[in-house]
Amino acid sequence: EMMGEYFTEETMVGAAASWTPDAARLVDGDTAGVLIDAMLNQLVAGDPDNKGSVIPPEVQAAIAGNLNPDDVRGGEISSEDMTDIVKTFDGNDISENYNSEGAGAVIDTVEIDQVPDEVRIELIEKLGESSEESQRVDSDKLTEAIVGASPSSIGDMPQETVGNLASGLEADQVADMPE
Questions:
Q1: pTM to 2 decimals?
Q2: CA–CA separation, 105 vs 38, rounded Å?
């Protein structure tokens, strides 16, 4: 909040646009929220070519990876805005910047069918690193994410990852999974 008292949103976004992903990974959750909010406020409403402002996607991913997962789930960023941000990422952006808790919050929040397959698969794999986090995610959202992914991609994941993911599903959802 103090950042907003001293810097305009345009100044914050301009500064973040010059960062490397490594520099962006240093921000804390509160700062990440302020920066993402500033970035979203700098977009031109209704402009389909606004692919996340002047901040490069890999830097956006590093910032967004530091968002507090409870804030993401709590709607601090709308589902539509989070989807618009995440769909500009690639798989490496997820694997390098997200932990299982952050991936779970994204799966719970975004419109997963609008997310590129490689991003969806990385989110699923990151989530699968934790049985506890897999169980925290809405089982219907998790099912939607898994069913929409390539079965071979899920099948190629380590057995422990698949087991952790299955722990977040209801028995009937596991039974309905493609082989």
A1: 0.88
A2: 21
